[in-house]
Automatic annotation (TrEMBL):
Domain Major facilitator superfamily (MFS) profile as annotated: residue spans: 34-422
Protein name per Swiss-Prot or TrEMBL: MFS general substrate transporter
Keyword Cell wall biogenesis/degradation among record annotations: no
UniProt GO cellular component terms: endomembrane system; membrane
Membrane association type: Multi-pass membrane protein
SUPFAM superfamilies, per database record: MFS general substrate transporter
GO MF terms, alphabetically ordered: transmembrane transporter activity
Amino acid sequence: MYDLTPVPSVLTPSVRSAGEVEYSRKYVRNGWIHFAALCWCFFLQGWNDGTTGPLIPAIQEHYHVGFAVVSLIFVTNCIGYLSGAFANVILNDKLGFGKVVVLGSVCQIVTYAIQAPAPPFPVLVCAYAIAGFGISLQNAQANGFVGSLKDHVAAKLCILHGSYGVGAFAAPLVATHFSQTRHWSFHFLISIGIALTNTIVLTSVFRLKTQDEVMAEAGHGPGEVGGSAQSNLYREILGLKALHFMAIFSLIYVGVEVTLGGWIVTYIIQKRHGGPSSGYISSGFFGGLTVGRIALIWINRKVGERRIIFIYAALAIGLEVTIWLVPNLYENAVAVSFIGLLLGPMYPILVDHATKILPRWLLTGCVGWIAGFGQAGSAVLPFITGVLSAKYGIGSLQPFMVAMMATMIGLWAVVPKAQRRVD
């Protein structure tokens, strides 16, 4: 007779442990692939925003338009951003994360394909609306996705927005070269190439899946949901008082960032006689922005993310005053770079703060609204700058920037420190 009693296998614990380790590694690898894809998406957004400033003089010369008329590109851009922020709420609910980000990326391909042959000015202007719509969708989805992660959210947001800074730093280096050539609009051929790779990456990595399905691939549980199926998402989101303070802060902040990074080129050329290579100063600004978002993470944590914004804004105002009052090209160029350094961490801090005080089940929609308003600021404030410049000269840029930075301080003071989250 044989003893058929099962003998415990000494290999079972180790095999199970190895399997768990393998699954853990797979989750971590998938998480980083997702994050890298979103960083590339933000690189393209930065590339888009960093392109405009150096090309403004070439656009004015080609179409024979003044400051006020050329600023219409910011108006249509604003329309695109706001419509994208509004549409994102319902599109996220109906289509899901993966399809919405790819749709946004395709919009950018369409935009650059229209812009590359230097079409009639009204067509060029309308193309900016398509770009604004697409960027608004991608911005909202990426911020909402990273903000919903469980670990290291603040650091990942800084890196994500640092990727935007890298794109905004690189674009003026290329756009400045094209602005000095006959075929200045061929810069957008490079933009098409980057947008195509962005669409391919987003499609292959996320495969048009919902956010919960994508997060499951990285070992995260499904997102938290609240409210009834019949609840009005717009009413719930727009009923949050804290959301509106952060959205207006975002509008002013992004407006200052894009206005200074763009119009500073024209300012340096006309007021400091910087010459056609002044477009590289825009790269210095966005380079500072990138460094600030990554290198100052530890300072933000040590001082406190709420308090540090007041400090950064006050120092940026001081440097802006020196650009206004000190007629020295080199001092102005250095000051612009340091302003970028100080402004850099503010937006990631804002988004991280939103993830802490807003309901999680509404987070993607809320962050989309904040981001959409912010992107609208990147159109509204540059347009106002163009109108002021048409009437008072480009010298009005600096006092306008000082006033807007002071407004940011006031807005941040009324943003709630904390709020009970009913998850």
